[in-house]
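Teaching note: in complex prediction, the entire set of molecules is handled at once rather than each chain in isolation. The prompt given to students was simply: 'Predict the structure of this complex.' The entities are:
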Amino acid sequence: MLEIFTRLADVLTYELFGLDPASKLGDSVHFFIEDVTKIYALIIVMIYIIAVLRAGLDTGNVRKFLQNRSRGVSYLIAAAFGAITPFCSCSSIPLFLGFTSARIPLGITMSFLITSPMINEVAIALLGGLLGLRFTVLYVITGMLAGILGGFFLDSIGAERYLTDLGNQAKALGSTEAAYPDGTVKTRLSLRERSDFAKDEVKTIFLRVWKWVLIGVGLGAGLHGFVPEQLISDNLGSGQWWSVPLAVVVGIPLYSNATGMIPIAESLLLKGLPIGTTLAFMMSTVAASFPEFILLKQVMKPRLLVIFFFMLLFFFTLAGWIFNLAF
Amino acid sequence: MTIKILGSGCPKCQRLYANALDAVKQAQSSATVEKVTDMSEILRYRILSTPALVIDEKVVSTGQLLSAESIVALL
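The expected output is the structure of the full assembly:
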């Protein structure tokens, strides 16, 4: 089904622009056109599908839904909601406080917050278009597990002890209702209303990310051309055990969203970086960052931040090792 | 009338603040516009996403960047 984009790039590059298929320039232009058109098409389809599913759901509903659930399934549900709702790091603190004030356990809130930046419709479209279905499935499963297990772990060590005064203040508030008049938000929507919402989302999200895709693919193509293959494959190519934790330690403080990171990951893979190391690097970059830690410092005591850091380090390293061994 | 912009100072909050100032000017209203960045203060409004727009202590929007025109309509 995706061959159509190869053919489109053939027509544009070789026939319209008259570039030689054997030349380096022809090759790069072809690569660029094929990737960009393919990803744009996939993004539009993915945003539409996810938005139809998500219509009528906002964080207020999610909170209500999570409030009176048994703990076991809550981690899974919170991670799933995190995956389908869009994420903005500037909203993570209000969301954290809002969930906490609804007496949702810390771990369940964290399941949501860990998964949310990692998995979204744009990331899935990019992964599918650039790295194929197998890698996409691995990524989604690992991202969900990071949220579920991370949340479970934080609750099992009683991490709620390490909330700051602000966090405790939210807990004491015990509010069950959002002040925002979200009584106006209907949960039962007709198919037509869902479709209208989805079209609107396609427009908004596409306008926001199209340039990042261009930059990401361009940067990936640049890395493709300029970083010598030998450098990566000689030094890291055989998946040395220490390369995975190193990639994660470097990745956690780095700040990038999934949209920018995925084309870079593609190039690293093509340069011979093993799949587990690539995945571990990519996920740790997207899931957490230095600015995110600064934000979380408002609600978490330093001790909890350290625990959180090592928890992510441990999880992504383990995932990287497993994938390096398995593939 | 008092308009408050709740938010931790992210780019979206800054732009909402600018739009609110613009709206007040357009409507030739005497309303004052202020930024609220203190989290424990924001917490009192029980919102789940920022930026939020509060008019006379009533939350009218959360998580959205309203245009100056749509703020005028809310005044």
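Point out the following to students. The interface with chain A takes residues 7-8, 10, 12-13, 39-40, 42-43, 45-50, 52, 59, 61-63 of chain B (CB under 8 Å). Chain B has a mean pLDDT of 87.
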